[in-house]
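Design job #97: recover the sequence.
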């Protein structure tokens, strides 16, 4: 009898801890500013991105509306999407860090660490094969994976999440504005979050301004770094290509880069990447100045250390990208100190300060 009583108490405690909460509008202050969430692309990039999107990226991402993205913004920053009401997407994606989190490995809802760090969010509308292992085909496919992950946010039952949010009063108007109905479903949650993500474009860096004037705004050092980045000596843009500085033609196979992922000769520890081949998705370099630490496990604290890896640290492996091989040996590029300084100077021109501070991407919970 005593055991049955204790069991009942324990079940009641568990149910209470996980039960949907009722929250009144007065309990939470939300930014009510109406923002324009149109996908913002500079004229200089429209042709390239239109061609890239139509030929490479799937078309399952939703159309972006102001009401849909506004709802997605609230969902992105709402800790109620985690099982213990303590972790939101914004917990691991900080705007001032270009939506990375500055940590080697990401901490989930219960204090456990993931095996990889949080990737920066960089023009997801024009990207595919998202996550370090490329498992998400687009933003729509990405949104609920961290929410349902047993380490990250722990909300494994999407129907439970929908019911939980339906008892949170500020969502009534938000869903009605976005979908002409206050009914909440996991599909709508995913769609709204994808709209917010797709609205997040970053094309207002010093580099983007330079395109308009043949880079007359660049210093001599930045121009030297640009030449090194684009030149055949190191050919960095072979992997970080085009206006997105992202994985090369992400669906293609060329020079060892398959589906936007490749093996760059990192010494492998516990995490051996896609198919245990040491391959990880090639990240965009936009805002890279702000997204340290680098690589899937944050092993490099600075851009200098990243360049040092390519200079002398590439390890020979069976699946090493052919561009990093010299016969049966890993290449040593032997990048000089002066060249390293110039490359870092160029990479810093990819920082978009407006993206890091734009209020429409900020936390709406005031």
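Job complete. Output follows.
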């Amino acid at each position: 009898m005593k055991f049955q009583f204790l069991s009942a108490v324990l079940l009641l405690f568990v149910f209470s801890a996980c039960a949907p909460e009722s929250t009144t509008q007065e309990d939470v202050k939300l930014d009510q500013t109406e923002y324009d969430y149109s996908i913002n692309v500079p004229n200089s990039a429209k042709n390239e991105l239109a061609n890239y999107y139509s030929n490479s990226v799937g078309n399952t991402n939703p159309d972006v509306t102001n009401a849909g993205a506004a709802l997605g913004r609230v969902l992105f920053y709402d800790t109620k999407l985690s099982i213990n009401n303590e972790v939101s997407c914004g917990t691991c994606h900080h705007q001032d860090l270009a939506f990375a989190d500055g940590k080697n490995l990401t901490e989930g809802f219960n204090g456990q660490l993931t095996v990889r760090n949080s990737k920066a969010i960089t023009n997801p509308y024009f990207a595919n094969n998202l996550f370090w292992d490329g498992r998400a085909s687009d933003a729509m496919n990405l949104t609920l994976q961290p929410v349902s992950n047993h380490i990250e946010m722990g909300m494994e039952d999407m129907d439970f999440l929908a019911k939980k949010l339906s008892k949170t009063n500020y969502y009534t108007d938000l869903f009605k504005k976005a979908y002409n109905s206050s009914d909440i479903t996991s599909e709508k949650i995913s769609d709204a979050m994808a709209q917010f993500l797709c609205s997040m474009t970053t094309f207002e860096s010093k580099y983007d301004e330079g395109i308009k004037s043949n880079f007359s705004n660049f210093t001599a050092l930045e121009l030297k770094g640009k030449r090194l980045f684009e030149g055949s000596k190191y050919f960095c843009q072979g992997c970080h290509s085009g206006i997105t500085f992202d994985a090369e033609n992400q669906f293609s196979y060329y020079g060892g880069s398959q589906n936007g992922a490749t093996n760059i000769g990192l010494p492998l520890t516990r995490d051996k990447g896609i198919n245990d081949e040491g391959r990880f998705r090639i990240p965009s370099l936009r805002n890279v100045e702000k997204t340290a630490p680098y690589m899937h496990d944050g092993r490099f604290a600075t851009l200098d250390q990243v360049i040092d890896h390519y200079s002398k640290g590439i390890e020979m492996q069976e699946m090493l990208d052919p561009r990093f091989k010299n016969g049966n040996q890993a290449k040593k590029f032997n990048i000089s100190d002066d060249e390293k300084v110039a490359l870092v100077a160029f990479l810093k021109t990819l920082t978009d300060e407006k993206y890091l501070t734009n209020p429409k991407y900020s936390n709406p919970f005031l």
